[in-house]
Design a protein that fits this description.
By secondary structure, the chain is an alpha/beta fold. It has one domain (6-305): Alpha/Beta hydrolase fold, catalytic domain (Rossmann fold, 3-Layer(aba) Sandwich), CATH 3.40.50. The chain contains 11 helices and 9 strands. The chain has helices at 6-9, 35-39, 93-101, 123-133, 135-142, 156-165, 196-202, 210-217, 233-236, 256-268, 294-305; strands spanning 20-24, 48-51, 59-63, 71-77, 105-109, 144-154, 186-190, 242-248, 273-278. The longest helix is centred in the C-terminal third of the chain and has 13 residues, at 256-268. It is globular, with a radius of gyration of 18 Å. The N and C termini lie far apart (36 Å). The relative contact order is 0.20.
Length: 306
């Protein structure tokens, strides 16, 4: 496991015109868990690890249901503040195993992050894009239904999941733009850092403060490129895809206001974006299949892929 930094250790919607009101899930009575507590549990293993590029970190892990396909697919993008010194795709193993048992194929992506050679801008974004598009290559062999794909991300991965849905909205001059991004049905953002600029300005220091956003997208210079123009989902609205933005009411890392504000902005632009606040949940309950709020997360996937 990668070393946990002191910053994070200390922490150990809608119709076309208006966002839907926040929905309340069953109350979680336990104290919010930490990622260390989550990772201390036994984990099952994926069915296959598949490279989507030449770098050692350009791979995904595929979890396949035992039933006959074609399988609806959930792409998982892990969080960890976009940082190399925090845990990676192993954070998503627990929900991947649960989703596999419920009949979904799961494509759990790893990618280069801040601190990895090639991480940050543009590498982190290019990795996620290449990993998602690689499903075209593996779909036939593994009976993946490319017409039923949802993308889900947690924390920093929630930002990247929303960005994935925005890829066809990228400026023509952006080095992140690619031809024919793989279409998805929608996004489930789990405690996602949706608005990079807002999180940089007013977010808690749990991820390391403004320098982490600067490390991801670059430092905004007077007269320079707008570092958020092709990286931050609110700038790219409307996405045109359904978005379910789920927050934990007790989340000190990404407080619910960030998800609520993003969903409201998306709805104002005409997107169908639901903001859901899960009472009693912290940051990591949203990716914990044993939590009291997990059924509400499952409902979001079912709504996109049924």
């Amino acid at each position: 496991m990668r070393l946990m930094t002191a910053a994070l250790a200390g922490i150990l919607a809608s119709t076309a015109c208006a966002p839907s009101p926040a929905l309340i899930a069953p109350v979680e009575t336990r104290a919010p868990i930490t990622f260390s507590q989550l990772l201390a549990r036994p984990r099952t293993v994926p069915d296959e690890r598949i490279a989507y590029g030449p770098d050692a970190l350009q791979f995904g892990e595929l979890w396949l249901p035992r039933r006959q396909g074609p399988h609806p697919v959930i792409v998982l993008i892990h969080g960890g503040c976009w940082r190399a010194d925090l845990p990676g795709l192993e954070l998503m193993d627990y929900m991947a195993a649960d989703l596999r048992d419920r009949g979904y194929a799961v494509w759990n992506l790893e990618y280069r992050r801040i601190g990895h050679p090639g991480g940050g801008y543009p590498g982190t974004f290019r990795d996620v894009a290449a990993g998602v598009d690689h499903m075209r290559t593996i779909a036939a062999q593994h009976s993946l239904d490319l017409h039923r794909i949802a993308v889900a991300g947690h924390s920093a991965g929630g930002h990247l999941a929303l960005w994935t849905a925005a890829r066809d909205r990228l400026p023509a001059e952006s080095p992140l733009r690619t031809a024919r991004p793989l279409p998805v049905r929608g996004v489930v953002s789990l405690a996602g850092i949706a608005d990079l600029d807002a999180y940089r300005q007013t977010g808690p220091d749990a991820c390391g403060g403004p320098s982490v956003i600067d490390g991801l997208v670059g430092v905004q210079q007077p007269g320079g490129r707008n570092v958020f123009a092709d990286t931050s989902p609110p700038v790219l609205l409307p996405l045109g895809d359904r978005q379910v933005v789920i927050s934990g009411a007790r989340d000190a890392i990404v407080p619910p206001r960030f998800g609520q504000d993003y969903a409201a902005a998306a709805a104002q632009k005409g997107d169908r974006a639901d903001s859901i606040v899960l009472e009693g949940a912290g940051h990591f309950e949203l990716i914990d299949p044993t939590s009291a709020v997990w059924p509400r997360v499952l409902d979001a996937f079912a709504g996109l892929l049924r």
